[in-house]
Amino acid sequence: MERQNQSSSLTCENLPSFLSSFVDTFVDFSVSGLFLPQRQEIPQQPLQTHYPSPNRLVAIGDLHGDLEKSKQAFRLAGLIDGSDRWCGGSTTVVQIGDVLDRGGEELKIFYFLEKLKREAVKSGGQLITLNGNHEIMNIEGDFRYVTKKALEEFDVWAYWYDIGNKMKSLCHGLEIPKNPFHGIPPSFHRVPEEFSHSIRARIAALRPDGPISRRFLANNLTVLVVGDSVFVHGGLLEKHVDYGLQRINDEVRDWINGSMGQRAPEYCRGRNAVVWLRKFSDEFAKNCDCSLLEHVLATIPGAKRMIMGHTIQEIGINGACDNRAIRIDVGMSKGCINGLPEVLEIDRNSGLRVLTSNPMYQKKNQYAQTKEGLGLLIPEHGPKQVEVKA
């Protein structure tokens, strides 16, 4: 998903070009080893890639730094109450990635999701989060889509994180905290000085082995299979399945934790990457490679459908390729197209349906109504709106 409400971006003249050129500067420092001090690795348990089919499964698309819209999506599915506490019982929820960029409340969403994960477990439910292309980009130091408000949020984080480290250093017997800014230069070529500290804070937080990336992103999955549904931010090709879904998850986790250099694994980079692929997400059905999708799903035992984010669907959540491709990014963030929140629900007994906040589908005294008939909703010559459930 690459469309953006330009008004939400940094307004300083030429800053986008500064941030774009900064990516190359960051990589140059990384390759030299300046950014990534050596650390002793602790063996980690494999992430869980396959989950059994739950009674109720909810999928939520890209959030992009918009906390209020994120909460609206969770409320839409009956997952949180008026106090933002988990009330979803034993529901399994999958958030498809792209919390970062385009909005200014990225850290707030990270903490919100972390809180819900803990509350859900206590009720027999679970919230599983994925890495999107914007998480991968930011860990690599690509900040082209960051907003001014987001930089300010990381500035505040860095201030309090530094105070916390200073307090820890006063306690006898505790290990001396690692300086998160170690190895990061004080300024960057062509980046205005007024943004230098914010850029440094974002690098420190999100680079491999950074405090925020380790805490909130390292244990995200990149590929997930729940029952007969495959979840991935962009899409999967046969070569990805052959490489190994479990292997992809473990390697991305190890990379984020700082043991595989600055660059993301190859299958996370480029147009055919698992977080970038759009072969099954085009708004025109004739451009979706349904034959390829069929072959890919056939290589994953029991898989019936692939559920993806990444590419904004202006008509809302929809299905293509005879419902084998379900696209759930509705661009809900104000930094995207400010779309009306929608979520996908898969019930073990009643199948797939879309929960929407679109008023044209609402009935009196109901917050969310459903729309059905996902089918092949995207005809060759343009989009078609879904039918209202009777």
From TrEMBL:
UniProt cross-references to InterPro entries, sorted A to Z: Calcineurin-like_PHP, Metallo-depent_PP-like, MPP_Shelphs
Domain Calcineurin-like phosphoesterase: 56-311
Entry GO MF terms: hydrolase activity
A Pfam family: Metallophos
SUPFAM superfamilies the UniProt entry points to: Metallo-dependent phosphatases
PANTHER family recorded: SHEWANELLA-LIKE PROTEIN PHOSPHATASE 2
Protein name: Calcineurin-like phosphoesterase domain-containing protein
Organism from which the protein derives: Gossypium barbadense
